[in-house]
Structure formats: C-alpha cells, structure tokens
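Sample 1 of the test manifest.
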Amino acid sequence: MNFRTALLGTTAAATAFIGLAPAAHAQRAADGNVKILYFQAVSVMNPYMSSGTKDVHGSSLVIEPLAGFDEKGGLVPRLVTEIPSVENGGISKDLTTITWKLTPGLKWSDGTPVTADDAVFTYEYCTNADMGCSQAARFQGIKTVEATDPQTIKITFTTPKPNPFSAFVGAASPVLQRAQFKDCVGAAAQTCTEQNTKPVGTGPFTVTDFKVNDVVQLAANANYRDPAKPAFATVTLKGGGDARASARAVMETGEFDYAWNTQINPEFQAQLAAGGKGELISAFSNNVERIELNLTDPSPDLPEGERSQIKNPHPILSDVRVRRALSMAMDRQLLVDVGYGAAGKPTCNVIPAPEIYASPNTNCHVQDIEGAKALLEEAGWTDSNGDGIRDKDGKKLSLLFQTSVNAVRQDFQALVKGWWTQIGVETELKAIEPSVFFGGDPGTPDTYQRFYAEAQLDTLDYDGTDPEAYLGQYVCANVPGPGNGWRGTNINRLCDPAYEKLLADLSKTADLNERAKIIISMNDLLTKDGYVSIPLVDRARLSAKSKTLGGVVLNAWDSELWNASDWYRIK
Amino acid sequence: MLTFVIRRLLLAIPTLLLISLVIFLLVDLAPGSPMSEIPRTVPPEVRERMMQAMGANEPVVVRYLLWLRQFFLVEPAYVIDSLMGTNLAGGAQRVLSWQSRMPVFDIIAQRLPQTLTVIGSAYLVGVLIALPIGIYSAYRQYSWFDQLGTFVTMVGSSVPTFFTGVLLIIVFSVNLGWFPSIYDTTLEVTDWASFKMQIMQMALPVTMLALHNATEISRYMRSSMLENLGQDYVRTARAKGMSERVVVLKHVLRNSLIPVVTVIALGIPTIFGGAIIAEQVFKVNGLGTALIGAINASDLPTVQTLTFIFAVLIVFFNLVADILYGILDPRIRYD
Amino acid sequence: MRDATGSAEPPLVRVRDLKMFFPVHTGVLRRHTGDVKAVDGVSFDIMEGETLGLVGESGCGKSTVGRALLRLCEITGGSVTIGGVDVATLSPAELRKARPLMQMVFQDPQASLNPRMTVAAIIGEPLDEHTTLSRDEKLARIYELMDAVGLNRRFASHYPHEFSGGQRQRIGIARALALNPKFIVCDEPIAALDVSIQAQVVNLLEDLQDRLGLTYLFISHDLSMVRHIADRVAVMYLGQIAELSPREALYAEPLHPYAKALLSAVPEPDPDREATRKRIILKGDVPSPANPPKGCNFCTRCPEAQERCHSTAPRLSEVAPGRFVACHRVTESAGATGATMANEHNQMGENE
Ligand SMILES: Nc1ncnc2c1ncn2[C@@H]1O[C@H](COP(=O)(O)OP(=O)(O)OP(=O)(O)O)[C@@H](O)[C@H]1O
Ligand SMILES: [Mg+2]
C-alpha cells in the first residue's frame, strides 16, 4: 500500500465524474453569465498577497496550482500529467525530491506557453524575504526548485518529506507567470496593483475588471486547456453583505447563482429552502468546533508573564477526570441542531477526516450528566456547602469560558454553561471581538494565544488533508508565552512526552497506513484519552446554489470554485 | 468675506493636522491587527514577514510621518503627474491599503461614483420631500397631515435603517420581485434600458435613506417654519395685504430656510462618508463599506485616509454653512 | 362719539360686541377644553381724524383688539366696520383689497420687520401688491415715505438690523403709510423705544395725523403718553372696556374704580395736585382670561365691590355725556341715564 493510492483512491472516480458532467454542454462560453456572491469581497487576486479565503477562492478562477484536492480530499492533477508517487518515480525513494511533469501544450491566458521556469519563479517570488509572502509556509523545508527541462519541475527538500504535497498544491499555492511578475519581486510586490488584481493565469477565466472589495468581472479564458470549457462566457464575483443576505439572494430573489459560506441558523435554512429558487449544499472536511482546555493556571493572581505558563499547572484542569467530566456533560447533537443544522454533525475527534485518519471514536455522542457527576466525585470535587458548586480543599470548581463574539458561539456558551452548572461546575462566560481575539496582538491580554481562561471555544482547520503540521502544534516548544511574543500554537499548553514521541515517529513514516495509525493515536491523546480538547461539532462548508446552476461539486478541501470550469446553466 | 474665508482656511490647517494625528493614534491603539483576517494556519513567522512588508510594524511615529508625506506630497504629485504628464512623484510609494495593496485613492476613485449616485441622490430626494412636508406641517400645525407627519417621522427616526432596509428587500425584492436587492456597481448607463436598470437598482436604497434623511430635515423645516410663522413680521406681511402664498413662501419660508440650509450643508459630508448600513444591506459597496471593511481588517492606511478626508469635508462644509448663513441672513456679516 | 350727542356723521370705525377667544386644547388628544377670552364683548366707535387711546395693563387684550380690528386674526364674534366696510365678514380676497384702508404699527419694531428684506422692499412690497405704479414711481413713493418719517434716503437698501430702534419704528410707520390708509392701529409703537426717542416718534405720529388726516387707535400702557396724544381714552381690564371717556374728563375724574387705580399711578404735571396724589394699590392678581370671575370681571380686586358685582356683570353704559362706564355703582349713582352701547347699537341698526 502506498501513500498515493490509498489517500487518493478516489481521484480516478472524481476525475471521471468531472469529465462526464459537462459532456452535454461541450461548448465554451455558450451559457452566458454566472453570478457568484462572496459576502466577504475579494481584495486581491493573488493568494501570495493575502491568504484570506475569499482571495484564495477568487484567484482560483484565474491562477492554478500544479495539483489540487477534490471533494473527498484526494489529489487531482491540474497543470500536470499525473500526481507524483514513489511508484511512478515522481517521488524519490528517500522522500527528498518530488518531480512534476507539466501537461504538454499548456498555455497562459495571454497565449504564451507555461513552462517549468514559471514554477521556479513562483518559488523565488514567494520565498523572497522582503516580499512578506502569505503562503511562505508552503515552501518551507525546500532546498531548491529547479526546471530540469521546460516541462519538468523538480523540488528538493532539506530533509525527507513523507508528505511533499504542499508547494504548488491547492488553490493557495498557484503558479504565477514569470513574464508578468518579474518586476514584482521583493518589496516591489506590494505596489504591483495591476499584476495583483489581473494576474495572467491558466484557469478557466481571466479578469476583465477588478473593483477592490466589491466586484470582479471575469471572462472565459480563450486559451484554456479544455477547448469545450468553461461553459460560462463571463463571471461576476460580487462581494458585500452577510451570510443571511447572500443566501437570500440565491434562494429567495434568485439574483445570484451561487453564494459562498451561507452559514445561517437551521431555522432560516428551512425558511430559505422553501423559497424554491435554490438549495443549500454542504461538504465536510476537517473543521471542528471545539472547546480548548487550558492545562496551565491563568489565574490573575499570578504575576504577569507567569499566567498560563507551563510552570504553573492548572489547579483544577490538570486532573484528567475533571476534563473528561466536562466533555461528558456535552449534548453534541443539540449543539448541532441549535447552531448548524445541515452544516454540522457531532464529532469526538479533532481529526475527523479524511476517512482513514478519523478515529472510530463515537463514545461522546451521548450526553452523560450522571457519569460526569460521578467522575467529579471520584476526583474529590464535592459540593460540601450545598450551594450547587463543587469544591475541594476550600477551592470552588469555577471556570472562565471565553470565545469570540459570534451568535452561534454565544448560544453554545450558554448551553455549555447550563450543562456544566448541572454537574456542579460554576462557569463564567466572556465574549471577545474576533479582531482582538484572533488578532494576535502580543500587547492585548484577550487573544486566544494568551488564553487567560480555563476554556475557550473556537475552531481550527488546516490546509490540505495531511494533519502532521497541525498535530505538530501541540508540543512543549510551541507554548505561547512572553518569550516568543505570545506567538506559539500550542494553545492548550500540552507538554506530553508520549505525544511528542508519536509526532517524531510520524515525521519519519511514509507508509499511509502506519501514518494513519499514529495520527489516530495522537488524535485520541488529544481527545478521548487526554481530553485536552473537547471536540463538539464537525462543521461543514455551507453554500447556496441556484437550481439552474449545474456542475457544482462543493469541495471543502480546496477552493469552492475549484471546478468552475465545469459549471453550466441548466436549461 | 474673503478675509474671513482665508482666515478660517488658515485656522483649519493646524486643526486638521491635529485631527489627523488623533485619528492615527486612535486607529493605531485600537485593538486588532491587520493579520486578524489571515487564517490561523499561517504561521507566526510568516505573519511577521507580512507585517514587515506592509510596514505595519514600524514605530507609530515613523508610520505617521510616512503617511503625512504620502498624503500631502506623494498623492498630489501623482495627481499633477496624471494631469500634466510630468514626473514629480518619481515612483514614490503612494498610500497603500494593507488589505488589498491598492492605492487608497484608487479605491476611493472606484467607490465615489456609486456613493455619490446612491447616497447623494438619497440625500437630494430626502431634502426635496422633507421641505414641502415640513412647510405644510407647520402651516397646518396639528392638522391630520401634521399629526401623520409627526407619527411617520417618529417611526422613521426611531426604526433603524437596517430594519427598514431588510423590510424593503423582503417586501419589494423577495415577495413582489419588483426591484433588485443587490446593487450592481458594474452597470454602466449607456442607453434607456440601462438607465431604467439603474433607477430600479437605486430604488430601494434611495427610498430607505431618503426616508431617513427626510424625517430629520422635515422636522427642522417644520420647527423653523413654526418659529417664523409666529413672528410679528408675518403679521406685518398679512397687514400689507399680501396673499397667503406670498406670506408663507416669500416671507416665512425664506427666513425659515436659513437654519435649514445650514443643517443641509452640514449633512453633505455624510454623503461622502457613505451610509454604512445602506451600503451593506444593498451591497452598494461605496465609501461606507470601504471604511467599515478597513476598520474590521485593521487596515490602518485606508481607515486613516478615509476618516481624514471625511474630517476635511466636515471642516469644509462647516465653512460653507457659515458662508451660506452669511449670504442668506443679512444680519450676519463676516469682516 | 367725541360729540356722540350731536353729530350725524357716522364714525370711521365702529366696533360692536367684539369677541376674540383663543381655544385651549389639552390632553393627549388635544381636546378643546376651554377658551382664553382675550377680548370679551368690546364696543366703541372712532370718529374720522380722532385718536382713541386704549390703555390697560399687560395681557388685558389691547393688542388683540387691535389685531381683531384689522382682522389679523379671525374673530370669534361681533362686528367691525371700518369706513363702511364690515371687515369681520370679508372674504380673504376682499379683505386683501380692503387692506390699504387700515394699517398697523407694531409693538416691536425689530420683530415686525422681515429681517431678510431691505427697507425699500419692506416699504415697497404693498405697492407691488396693491398699485400699478412703475418701478420709478414706486421708488419715488418709497423715498417720499422715507422723507415723511424722517429717514435718510441713503438707507433704502439697508436691512432692518442696521437701524436703531427709533429708526426701525419709523420704517414701520413708513410701511404702514405706504398705501395711504385712513385708519392706523398703533400698538404700543413706543413701548420698545428709549424715552428720548419716544417723544420723537409720538410727535411724528401726531404730525402725520395732522397732515394726512389719519385716524388712530393708540394702544399703550403709558398713561401720560396717551394723555398727550389721545382725544378719548378707553380703559381695558381683562378683555373688556371698563371706562371710555374723553381724555380731559377721564384724567380729571376717573369714574370706574379700575380707572381710578390706574390713573392714581400717573404722576401729575401740576405740582399741587401731584402733592396730594394718593396711589391706590390694587390687591391680588389679574385673574386668568381663560377663567374670568363671575359677575363684574374686576370684582376680585375692586376696593368698592358690592354683592351684586359678584353675581351680575355690569354693562358699559353712558353715565354722563360722552362718558361710558361698566360699573354698577357708577351707573346707579348716575341714575342710569344713557343707553348701553349694545342698546345704542340696536337702535342704530333699526335706524339704518
Ligand atoms: N395667539 C394666541 N393664542 C392664545 N392666547 C393668546 C394669543 N394671543 C394673545 N393671547 C392671550 O390673550 C390675552 C391678551 O393678549 P394681548 O397680547 O392682547 O395683551 P396685551 O394687552 O396686548 O398685552 P401687552 O401690553 O403685554 O402687549 C393674553 O392672556 C394672551 O395670553
Ligand atoms: Mg400688546
């Protein structure tokens, strides 16, 4: 069993499906205009300038990576003939190089040929220190990117890479044209307005007009590799409003064909479905709404700089039984019904997908208040003074539970507080402006990194399908603190040698099944064994499409507009 | 009058500089970072680099001075260059948005047209309906028309615009399907059909804002009329045997308009500031949404530039209001 | 009525039973709950060329009488005839045509002039409305009027705020004269002016009266000034006339207790009489015109009030030739010689 075939087993099927759909509409630019609504408007058409989702998705209509992901998380070739693997010789046996072969005859939208040199340029462009490339992390660990011939791109890594599908894979890492961007290297990148808004690409469309943070107008790329695609002659990619209004524009007024990220409450979902003009579509990936628990003491009584630091273990949460009890009190299905409806499902894992990486753990799906109470008793937390709040050694079982300002999250906070109160845990709630909470300003005490609370509700997804980098966050060295300007990623302050041992093993393992085993163990250490995180809801992407729009396959692993070349008008 | 204007303009310079500094510090001190919209998967080093490339982690003084230079020297140079074909700017960096890396003035140029057409005409329509309503309400104080007007204006000013906006959409877009709910900024008026389209798509936002503006201005008009209607000179005019039309429209109205015109002039800068809610609800994407979007993204150069221009306009229209007052009211003289 | 006993010549102004009520609305629904009886049954005549003084304390309804006469407000009841025209019943268009006949000089010269019009426009506007003069003729007329009231022609294009109070009142007078009126209501034309200027304006008014044969209703609460200018004087109290007498008779011997009290406050020019002058201080406050007392409306403060004063209202009746008083005591002692105004009115009506 090798890495590619197992993980990408679905690729063939996916490509076959994509190949089939537009067969009946095999004429380019025959279907007129398609109107897409992103309530967060596109700011720039170059993901190296901005990693905002809207910008990545918008630019994916124009510029493409070598390979992308399909809706199941499998890799699909875009500019290359096939996905490299150890079997086909595309990946070296020692896992230090990967070689991509460009599809012959590929042209940029300006008619010039796409060559390996363009990929080399893209690498140089993004790794230039003065550029401030937002996707620089994708090119980490690369020693060289070379054009061994005009059709062949060879990437050499500094160390063996079990998962080499980061650079040039997925909508966030497209290939730019050297000819267009040659003067935009380094600091000059910032001022290349024309290039950043109207890139020359290989995708199905090209930009004809760009109004920043408002609307992008695109037209079919005359040099697109499939002469029968795209079916639409023009695209209007409009921005503005909110999720509710954009869902309404597709499903009630029918003014738009497609609306991105229409996260609306279940009640409104049902109401809009009755509008009859469109439908909501959803797709799951690895986006888990969870409660992070703080293993260190955030107490304001500690001197500044020592709050939420390893040397001060949390007096309550250090006991795994307490953490487990907190998780057992959750009614995850109710949370789904209240907050997400079709766009969510209960989960007990932080790595819920793809299938092979998902731990088969479902024991958290049933709420167990009594069990939680018993567990707290066992841990020595009893309600000695009868005020409904447990205590131990004169200390009350009291937690601060924070999150960002967001209607669903505040609903969740209230529900969770109710359950925790039932099991005798006093809960104080706090909601922080998202721009502050996620802003990462080291001077603000209210960031999620500081974690000056016992529990916080948030979500964290990761790029691509491989969770290695994501799991790598939970190591001792990554604990945010004054030493690193509060910029670590180990929010829970987990310092577990067993976990770090698994991580080290993972980085040396190439075999997919072995990797899956390790990943599942690590997931379990974070969840059902260690209860560092309390996963709640596996969140889907929820978008809306018109009933007259065909060919849409919602993809949560890549740009939602990944297959816009296959979209067509149902007549 | 001229010396008055010059003196006021000169006085405005230190005021505006101070305002610009205060805005800069306020925006800078506001919590939030330009990186807050970046996915959390982007590692800290990369964020650091991005901040550096934007110049966002320079000390605040440096950034302020740079902005001053860009705003007052570089941008005018670019304007002169594009008009005269000179090369004064010499490729110096303009005020760039952190969000999109676009020159902020280009963003403004892109957005001004829809802001002026939608918000501007809403203001105009608002004024045009407010004046007659205010005049008639005052002339027939306590009549059913006046009572209805009082009720409508009370409702109009107490119901928030986002509510009326969404209500209009539900009634006229969703249920009746008469007007679009989303403004198409790419529409170019070239012929009759596209003009009709433009009117259609302006209908809802303009109605909403015009009603909102009209309620306020009609109240001013009404109370100013009432005040003047009770004045002795009105009795004089009647005693002269002037017809009721002349009494109301010439004597009373012309005097009542003095404070109202001032209020109207002072309201004009809000057109440029855009109506944030109207623009959001109908996706007009004018200057209002540009500002709120920039605030949300902690896009300091954009916020700073827009608010500063707004401050300039406020100062300017204050002056205009004063001058208008001087012209309209012979009792006021500036020397 | 200066010589009401003899002359057959009809009065220029004839007012009968004039009533002017201002409705009072209260409550959320603004229901009509009562009236301010600002003028409640006032009758008098003014002969051509005569000046009738109208005095009384503030709020007694003097201005309202003046305005009602010129129909600057819609009267509640009674009749007003000026120069044979029944002003009270004219249609708005007819009323406008009748305007040139009667004019008013207002209490507050500042407020009564439109601040946005120049002096020329203020004086000239009625000419536009009521005459067909050419532009030059109009200008000539404006200058003529300015000369007549002693305003420098240079100021024609100035605005009212650029003038002193006295000058403003001259503008107001010039404006009132523009259409050659016969009858002018002067509503406290000097109250807002400096004492030094008051005499100038009053002299101007007298002078104009002589030259143009004007008839004045001169409203004032300055009794010495009224004594100076008026031929006959009406004393008003709470919306009604208490006494209406020739000037000399009134100042020599006021009959109505209110007139007595009022005049006792006036300094006498004659030092002997001034030495013996006794001030009568009235007790209590003026009742609200919205709720006047039953009976005689002065009974609450009258030092000589009797029982019947509290039950029946006295009528204004002639107690001596040319002297009309509304007081039970006075009519009694005088033996109720004359007819009341109302009766007289009826008789006249029959005669006509
Ligand atoms: N438009 C009006 N509405 C209601 N009440 C009024 C109105 N005009 C006058 N009044 C009332 O009528 C009464 C008489 O007012 P008027 O102005 O005639 O008094 P006045 O004798 O002229 O007083 P002054 O000497 O202060 O000018 C007052 O009580 C006043 O409040
Ligand atoms: Mg008065």
